[in-house]
Specification:
The complex is a heterodimer of chains A (about 525) and B (about 350). Chain A has about 525 residues and is mainly α. Chain A is built from 18 helices and no strands. In chain A, helix 5 crosses helix 14, helix 5 crosses helix 17 and helix 15 packs across helix 16. Classes of the chains: A mainly alpha (about 525), B mainly alpha (about 350). At the A-B interface, helix 1, helix 6, helix 7, helix 16 and helix 17 of A face helix 5, helix 6, helix 10, helix 11 and helix 12 of B.
């Protein structure tokens, strides 16, 4: 293993060296930073020209100049590693350390949502191969695959931000919208459920009616102007979650699991006011982490109470349910903060911003305001990025699951009489995740490269901004700094993917020759 | 909850039907049949060809000595007067395209409207689509050729050649395509769109070359290659006549993938300002120029985007159809009608 890692790391360093060498020379020969000065007739221009040549070492030919840059980087062995300074004499490292967290924040949420939704839809699509749902999903995936992100971003800004902000001034949903939304929801759920025609029709009617009722209630109570859930709704949603998680995780046959999952929303209801009291006085990220930890502990205790044997699946079910219920309580708390946030001068009734990463006018110090602000600023970029990367995961998880379902061990599992749920979730789905993990890891690095465009569209100050600046200023040090971070992430992701693959799939062993 | 329910016992009969249908057909015929049967891919192919013909015949162009006169009355550099008549809200240059069969059906004077200085937007979009399609094909062809050659050489000769070429591929694969595209595009964009596409194509082959290499590595161990060697065929002959035809599926499929990626890359680069530059026109450039006028003159934003999506979507679907057609494990989906007919025959 150590030999294998050593071999991989040396290969990694060679690759980074080679690609940075190629990019450095490519960038160096493709632009001349002295061009503007050479054409100038200003008497001082000559002096500035010499100063610039000295500053950027332009008298050294690019292949050799690359090693000057590398020398700074190799300082890592003596403790003085540096990416050099930009043309304005700002250290590249300090710029990068500000930009990297912004970019990560931008893509992290979108990636997670895209993975979860993509896998879910891909799997349903595979289980319903050649159904209308499958065809529709294929079409939607290809459509999203073909969307230019800068184009969809403008649409989102117009319809989700500007129009929605206008809508919030008088949050009454027009009847035509209610009808359209209900029909769409009915079609969606009906497509998801397979079965006899009668069953599909019933599903359609129930789903459409339920959506219509919910929308009408939301509209009549002007819910969007002062959103909130309250303890009863939190508990009701928690029970729904408990059903769903039990269904996916163990099936309803496992009574202890079902019971302990159902216990979680009840506990949530009991603890609703104490938790909110706690949130009021100790708001902060640490509090949320502690709460999550406590939730896990409670979930384990509850599971141990209900299950005497075979506790693993029960504990898993109740932990997942508990964390999701906790998430709903936090969402509820955020909704409580919405009205005061909405009325601050900084927001002024238009909560969804179209650009930038945070609202600098917002009074600092309020944790919930800060969290809401971050989430609202993430809203549009996350949707845009999710739409784009979601498609790949749908296609990939569909293809992989179909392949896995054709394997012999699936037939064996069915032959020994396991329920279809167990076959799909335990035997097929887990094996689908193996190739998916590698794709996800590699993709994450690619998304960082793609974030350049997203940042530009939504005016975020991250790596993409630095990169744009580097190219237009012909700033080699800055360019190489940005490149070095993205490409290091890319090769490390590749390595991580290979290691994960061998850890997950016992048929694959890493060999240290 | 019936998400997990499945239909049983359809595979056996379907397999029989599918097997009988391909009996006695050559590989090429099977592939062609499968592709034609892929409805999405066939529709996409027709739409794409129609779009290409429509877009390229609209405007004047000059190919070496042949001058072609397009059927559209404006060129993308003309600046006719801004038409305000009939526009809502007194805005100038609104589109005249009307699909209302009972009203003023037809293209009108400026079907896609006019931009802020009066240029005909239909001509601009046509020009932009021409550029994008051109870039797409050039990148596809250049990337395809370079990738095939590098993959073939490294897979066939293995050893040192392979290591060096694959390390080189790794070098290029590590650099994100937007970064390399921007570096090239920013400095070579002014050389014209053909050069830009050529340069971009020189860096678009990495994925393809890995696939081709894998294909060559497995094919070169097959018996027919040994037979060719024994018969005294040269390496070149083995590569081109024996192995390459067997790897053509992989190549075609990944070239379509390169192409669908290329059109999005080109538009993204032009949007960032690192691709096609003014006075030339590209779909990405049009969107980037007019994205702020979306609320006042939305047509300036809609039409280029629709063309990008149309081209990328059709190419993606064609690629999907090709992948299905070349995949030997792929079986045609047998409809319920055919299956029941089959069962009747079996029962009788």
């Amino acid at each position: 293993m150590i030999a294998y890692l050593g071999r991989r790391f040396s290969a990694l360093i060679i690759i980074l060296f080679g690609s940075s060498f190629i990019l450095y020379n490519l960038a160096a020969v493709s632009g001349d930073p002295t061009e503007a000065l050479r054409g100038s007739t200003d008497p001082k221009a000559r002096q500035q020209l010499y100063a610039l040549i000295r500053q950027l070492h332009l008298n050294v030919p690019p292949p050799t100049r690359y090693f000057l840059w590398l020398k700074g980087l190799l300082g890592v062995f003596t403790g003085h590693a540096t990416f050099g300074v930009t043309r304005e004499n700002i250290p590249v490292t300090s710029l990068l350390s500000q930009a990297i967290p912004t970019t990560i924040r931008l893509i992290l949420m979108a990636t997670i949502i895209a993975i979860v939704l993509g896998i879910a839809f891909g799997i349903v699509s595979a289980l319903r191969q050649y159904s209308r749902f499958d065809y529709a999903m294929t079409f939607v995936a290809f459509l999203m695959y073909s969307l230019p992100i800068f184009w969809i971003a403008v649409l989102l800004k117009q319809y989700l931000a500007i129009s929605f902000n206008n809508f919030l001034a008088n949050p009454v949903i027009a009847p035509s919208w209610i009808i359209v939304a209900s029909v769409v929801s009915g079609i969606f759920w009906a497509a998801l459920i397979s079965g006899t025609r009668r069953k599909v029709q019933i599903t359609f009617l129930v789903a459409a009616l339920a959506s219509a009722i919910v929308l009408i209630v939301l509209s009549l109570t002007k819910w969007f102007a002062h959103p909130g859930l309250g303890p009863i709704l939190v508990c009701a949603m928690g029970i729904g979650i408990a059903y769903f998680v039990t269904f996916l995780s163990t099936g309803f046959g496992n009574k202890p699991a079902f019971k302990s999952a159902l216990a979680m929303p009840i506990i949530g209801l009991v603890l609703y006011y104490p938790v909110n009291y706690f949130f009021k006085h100790f708001a902060g990220l640490l509090t949320i982490l502690v709460m999550a930890l406590v939730t896990v502990l409670i979930a384990i205790l509850v599971a141990r109470f209900f299950a005497k044997v075979d506790r693993g699946p029960v504990i898993r079910t109740s932990i997942i349910t508990g964390l999701l219920v906790g998430l709903i309580i936090i969402i509820d708390r955020l909704m409580q903060a919405f009205v005061p946030y909405f009325n601050t001068d900084a927001v002024n009734g238009r909560p969804i911003p179209t650009i930038s990463q945070s609202n600098s006018l917002l009074p600092p110090g309020n944790f919930w305001f800060g969290l809401l602000d971050t989430l609202f600023h993430l809203f549009l970029p996350t949707i845009a990025l999710t739409l784009i990367s979601f498609a790949g995961y749908v296609r990939y998880s569909r293809g992989t699951l179909l392949e896995v379902l054709n394997q012999d061990y699936i037939r064996t599992a069915r032959a020994k009489g396991l329920t279809e749920r167990t076959v799909v979730m335990r035997h097929a789905f887990r094996n689908t995740l193996i190739p998916l993990t590698t794709i996800i890891v590699v993709d994450f690095a690619a998304i960082i490269g793609g974030a350049i465009i997203t940042e530009r569209v939504f005016a975020w100050q991250g790596m993409g901004t630095l990169f744009n600046k580097a190219i237009t200023d012909l700033d080699l040090n800055l360019l190489m700094g940005v490149f070095f971070v993205t490409s290091t992430l890319a090769v490390l992701a590749n390595l991580a993917a290979d290691l994960l693959y061998s850890a997950l799939d016992p048929r694959i062993r890493v060999v240290g020759k | 909850m019936s998400i997990f329910k499945r239909k049983r016992s359809v595979e056996v009969v379907s397999g029989d039907i599918a097997n009988r249908e391909v009996e006695g057909l050559s590989q090429g015929q099977i592939v062609r049949r499968r592709f034609i049967r892929h409805r999405g891919a066939m529709i996409s192919l027709i739409v794409l060809v129609a779009v290409i013909l429509f877009v390229f015949s609209a405007l004047d162009f000059q190919l070496f000595f042949i001058k072609y006169h397009g059927w559209w009355k404006y060129s993308f550099t003309d600046q006719p007067e801004i038409r305000t008549q009939g526009c809502p809200g007194g805005l100038g240059g609104c589109p005249t395209l009307s699909l209302n069969p009972f009203g003023a059906f037809g293209l009108g004077d400026h079907p896609f409207g006019q931009d802020d200085i009066g240029r005909d937007y239909f001509a601009l979009v046509m020009r932009g689509a021409q550029r994008s399609i051109l870039v797409m094909f050039i990148i596809g062809i250049v990337g395809g050729i370079v990738g095939t050659v590098i993959g073939a050489i490294s897979g066939f000769y293995r050893g040192w050649t392979d290591s060096i070429l694959m390390r080189f591929t790794d070098f290029i694969i590590t650099i994100p395509s937007v970064i390399i595209g921007s570096v090239i595009g920013y400095h070579f964009g002014n050389l014209g769109v053909t050069f830009l596409a050529l340069y971009l194509g020189l860096f678009a082959w990495t994925g393809l070359s890995r696939l081709v290499r894998g294909e060559f590595l497995s094919l070169r161990e097959r018996e027919f290659v040994d037979a060719a060697k024994v018969a005294g065929a040269t390496n070149r002959r083995i590569i081109f006549k024996h192995i390459l035809p067997n790897a053509v599926g992989v190549i075609i499929v990944s070239v379509t993938l390169i192409m669908s990626g290329a059109i999005l890359l080109e538009t993204a680069l032009s949007y960032l300002g690192f691709g096609v530059v003014a006075p030339d026109v590209s779909l990405g450039l049009l969107i980037s120029q007019y994205q702020d006028s979306f609320s006042s003159r939305p047509w300036l934003f809609w039409y280029p985007g629709i063309f990008i999506i149309l081209i990328a979507l059709t190419v993606n679907f064609i690629g999907d159809g090709l992948r299905d057609a070349f995949d030997p494990r792929q079986r045609r989906r047998i409809s319920r009608k055919e299956r029941s007919a089959e069962r009747k025959v079996a029962n009788a």
